[in-house]
Amino acid sequence: MSTPSTPPTVVEARALSVTLGGQPILREVDLSVRAGEVLALLGANGSGKSTLVRSLLGVVPTSSGSVRLFGEPLGRGVDWSRVGYVPQRMPAGGGMPVTALEVASSGLLSGRRLRPPRGGRRRALAALDAVGVANLAQRRVHELSGGQQQRVLIARALVREPDLLVLDEPTSGIDVPTQETFVRTVARLHDAGTTVVVILHELGPFAPLIDRAVVLRHGRVAHDGAPPRPAPDHADAHHDHTHAHADPEPPTPPALTVEVNP
Amino acid sequence: MSDLLEMLSAPLMQRALLAAVLVGAAAPVVGTFLVQRRMALMGDGIGHVALTGVALGWLVGSWAGLVPQDSLAIPGAVVAAVVGSVVIELVRERGRTSGDLALALMFYGGIAGGVLLIKVAGGTNASLISYLFGSISTVSTTDLWWTVALAALVLGTGVGLRSALFAVSHDEEFARASGLPVRALSILVATIAALTVTIAMRVVGLLLVSALMIVPVAVAQLYARSFSRTMAAASGIGVVVSVVGLTVTYWNDIPPGATIVVLAIGVYAVAAALQPLLRRPVPPHDPHPDLPDDVELSEAGQPGRAA
What we know:
CATH architecture of chain B: Orthogonal Bundle
CATH architecture of chain A: 3-Layer(aba) Sandwich
Number of strands of chain A: 10
CATH topology of chain B: ABC transporter involved in vitamin B12 uptake, BtuC
CATH topology of chain A: Rossmann fold
CATH class of chain A: Alpha Beta
Strand content of chain A: 15-25%
Number of helices of chain A: 5
Radius of gyration of chain A: 19 Å
Helix content of chain A: 10-25%
Low-confidence stretches of chain B: 300-307
Order of helices and strands of chain A: EEEHEEEHHHEHEEE
CATH class of chain B: Mainly Alpha
Oligomer: heterodimer
Strand content of chain B: under 5%
Distance between the termini of chain A: 65 Å
Distance between the termini of chain B: 62 Å
Low-confidence stretches of chain A: 240-262
Mean pLDDT of chain A: 84
Number of domains of chain B: 1
Number of strands of chain B: 0
CATH superfamily of chain B: ABC transporter involved in vitamin B12 uptake, BtuC
Largest interface: A-B, 44 and 41 residues
CATH superfamily of chain A: P-loop containing nucleotide triphosphate hydrolases
Number of helices of chain B: 13
Strand order of the largest sheet of chain A: 6-7-8-3-9-10
Structural class of chain B: mainly alpha
């Protein structure tokens, strides 16, 4: 048991390396996040922020190193109902009609819970309400705007009342009022003791909440500590970085490689 | 009316109708997950592989001296279809080969293997015709029990685990980050797709199996708003076209499988043509009433507002 002065470690990565399509994306990353922290992951496009988060959650296989969530190695031992993940985008899917309520409800399943619990519908509606889209519950998600879809994805992560919330660029391509909603939501969760890991392109409206920042550069940790000051040409208050940008696709090996040996 | 009673009292027709109802209900349930996973043609690939299984069952049956020779055809098809679908799923997961290339390999390998093996087993290509195009009129009591058991399994799994199967089909990455057994659930979808193919084989035939899985879903998603309603409506449409198609062939000498599929596609054509008329039009409205406008425009200066 830990004393109140040292809160337990929620996320612990040791010498984590990830290689995708033969290309090293993360090299020997050490990261630990303590309960109740709000950690910002910063770095240029392609620095490995999204890959780091996805490997911490077991979405991307690691090539070496170890990851522990709530003290348990990744896998069945982790209590996944305590983890809420918000990806950057809603997947396109096969064009089937899917309502916002159905997407939010899918967050009720985790680990070995393959069927929604009793009162699941009420909880999903409450989660949608918490991010201000309860009125869209019965709408098809693909008819919603980008900002509304993002809110639905946050509701899907919140519905299980997570102790660890992981957000991948929640403010990219999102209008300012929605960004402010997110910041308020995260602040409320933080006050309730939730640990938050958030990928950001720049601190922006999240700045007051951030306790600590980790900056990645070329797949390595370049900074771990107080939130850094932005690079000089990015310091201008009018420099707006909220444009949507897609993650770079992981490099795929060419279908056919021809080697010419003279 | 007496004609209808006569049809319903014929034991052969009773078996055929029961098989049609079960297949019509089960196939679109699986199809809903396949469409969501962008694998609408998977049923077709499995169907081709199942043909090899039919021939293999025939071969084993003739070696063992079973009578009739094809008594192992359905078990053979079940085994081949399940193995084939799991292979497709694993190839897709590894991402080594694109999904459609993997399907293409199975399409042709399955048909060629079936034709070769049936010759080795002492049959002819004609022996395969009833499996390729269906022969509901030859449904035996044993076939019916197979159909009932497998359809119950498919419906029970598809409906009972629909939340988990939906989660994996809708957003695989989120499902992984939730600790859901993604691989096991994906293989489960592939397996129930394979079982559906083998039970639908007698009704519509292996070449048309996929149509009964996919076309009712295509109709339902035109009108339904949610995933669960699409699934329920598709299942209902599957039952209706199967029963109506079969009934038509009781009085007219036309092949039941093809009739059912043509009927389903006809329903799709009508539904698609009527969709613009029947779906409630959305009146012009502010999609974000809770958000203030970002720029102020004077009413008079707004382009497009001038009458």
